[in-house]
Each structure stands twice: as structure tokens, then as C-alpha cells.
Specification:
This protein is of the alpha/beta class and 230 residues long. It contains seven helices and twelve strands. The structure holds cytidine-5'-triphosphate and the ligand C[C@](O)(CO)[C@H](O)COP(=O)(O)O. Cytidine-5'-triphosphate (CTP) binds next to α3. Pathway: Isoprenoid biosynthesis; isopentenyl diphosphate biosynthesis via DXP pathway; isopentenyl diphosphate from 1-deoxy-D-xylulose 5-phosphate: step 2/6.
């Protein structure tokens, strides 16, 4: 079956504040986006990757990612949109139009650059087994509070029923298309699929798939790399 990975990478990285689009920020000398795309191909289940790049950086993204594709595969780069959901929508439309046989789609943040290949495989295998939508998750280890507009606690949800959600998220391509046809925004793609009433399954995520958002996250990634754990 044709597995295509969409990589939203068009964010500015405002919270990181590095002075470069986040996808191009190096960790151990290698841009986050290069690490993320390399991890997808290393899983051995993805032939094509479609990257939504910062509009001003399409050429440089092309240059640094094109050599990563395996024989018979390719990296495709296009300009991303204003919001993450827009970038995914543009990449999905490209894949369905230009890559014949696209039946399973992964959506993977460039910012989750250290996701282990076995997590990618677990997501693909669950979709292949018939799940229309699959997300990798971790248990919540902190106690979580719900607060009102004044910051006053109104509830303490049972954390046993909560999960932290990562990427890649995997979908039957037709389901993801229907979800994105709404034109709505959500913080993740599964959130749009849930609104269709389609069940979203979970598989085990991994701590290394952390999203690099802040300078602290970047420092953690550098430290893990030096320590040989990433
Ligand atoms: N218009 C956008 C915004 C985000 N993304 C991508 O979506 C992923 C998750 O977004 P996030 O980590 O929040 O990245 P940024 O939007 O760059 O972060 P910030 O909000 O700090 O600017 C990233 O790989 C980012 O590049 C995207 O493709 N298009
Ligand atoms: C898709 C995601 O990485 C799942 O955890 C996350 O929701 C992206 O959120 P962001 O606000 O765009 O960083």
C-alpha cells in the first residue's frame, strides 16, 4: 500500500526564538527537518514525503531534503500555509493529486525530529490493520487541572483517562481528506477526524518524539544527543 508522509514545517518557531524558521534550526549540526524526514524514511514504510515549507525557504528546504529519499521514492516540497492545518491541507491536496496510489497518509511535525522509526512503523501497521485514524500517545504523569477564565480550578480530570498526543498521526487518506474538507482548524489532525465521528485509535508513543517548541526543549534535545540517547 502507498504510504505518504506529510510534514508540516512552515512554522516560524516564534516560541523558540532562534532567528531561523524552526524546521531549519540545527541540533548537533543537523536541521530538525532533516532529522524528522530521515526518521520517516528509516522506518522503511514511507516512500514519499511531502513537506510544507516556510514560503520564503522552499528552495533551501528542497536542497537539504532531496538527498534523503530512498531509491524509488522522493521528497516533494511546497509552500505551507498560515496555520498548521492549512499547511497539512495543502500537502494532502498535493499528495492526492501528484502521487499515484496514496492510500495511507501520515502527518508528522518537523518539530518532532527525534521520533524513533519504530513509532512510525507502529502507526502505519495499525492503519494497515484497518484503523481509519491512529495517534501515538504517552500517559500523563502530572496531575492536570481544568481552570476557569480567572485561573481558578474548576475540576481535576482523572489522569488515567488522559493521554499526551504525538506525531506521526496516521490516516486512511480518504478519511483525512474528508476531515480537512471542513476547512476548520484544530491543534492536531485527529481532532478534525474526531469531529466526523470516526474513531481514533492509539499506539504507544515515545519520549524522544517530544515536540521541540521552546529553548528548553532544544537544550534537552542537544543534551540527549550528546548523551547518546537520541
Ligand atoms: N503555519 C504553520 C504553522 C506550523 N507548522 C508546522 O507545524 C508543526 C507544529 O507546530 P509548532 O511546533 O507549534 O511550530 P511553530 O508554529 O513554528 O511554533 P511557534 O508557534 O512557536 O511559532 C511544526 O513542524 C511547524 O513547522 C506549519 O507547517 N505551518
Ligand atoms: C500535532 C501536535 O504535535 C500533537 O501534539 C500538536 O498538537 C501541535 O501543536 P502546535 O500548537 O501546532 O505546536
Amino acid at each position: 500500500m502507498g504510504v505518504v508522509a506529510l510534514v508540516p514545517a512552515a512554522g516560524r518557531g516564534e516560541r523558540l526564538g532562534y532567528g531561523l524558521p524552526k524546521a531549519l534550526v540545527p541540533v548537533g549540526g543537523v536541521p530538525l527537518l532533516v532529522r524528522a524526514v530521515r526518521g520517516l524514511f528509516e522506518a522503511g514504510r514511507v516512500q514519499h514525503v511531502v513537506i510544507a515549507a516556510p514560503p520564503s525557504d522552499v528552495d533551501i528546504v528542497n536542497t537539504v531534503t532531496a538527498p534523503l529519499a530512498p531509491a524509488g521514492g522522493a521528497v516533494h516540497v511546497l509552500a505551507g500555509g498560515a496555520e498548521r492545518s492549512d499547511s497539512v491541507r495543502l500537502a494532502l491536496a498535493y499528495a492526492l493529486r501528484e502521487i499515484p496510489g496514496t492510500t495511507i497518509v501520515l502527518v508528522h511535525d518537523a518539530a518532532r525530529a527525534f521520533t524513533p522509526p519504530h513509532v512510525v512503523r507502529a502507526v502505519v501497521e495499525a492503519v494497515e490493520a484497518g484503523r481509519p485514524a491512529v495517534v501515538p500517545v504517552l500517559p500523563v504523569t502530572d496531575t492536570v487541572k481544568q481552570v476557569d477564565a480567572d485561573g481558578v480550578v474548576v475540576a481535576t480530570p482523572d489522569r488515567a483517562a488522559l493521554r499526551i498526543v504525538q506525531t506521526p498521526q496516521g490516516f486512511d487518506a480518504r478519511v483525512l481528506l474528508r476531515a480537512h474538507e471542513s476547512g476548520l482548524h484544530a491543534t492536531d489532525d485527529a481532532g478534525l477526524v474526531e469531529r466526523l465521528g470516526v474513531p481514533v485509535a492509539t499506539v504507544a508513543g515515545h519520549q524522544d518524539a517530544m515536540k521541540i517548541t521552546t529553548p528548553f526543549d532544544l537544550a534537552v534535545a542537544e543534551a540527549l544527543l550528546v548523551g547518546g540517547q537520541a
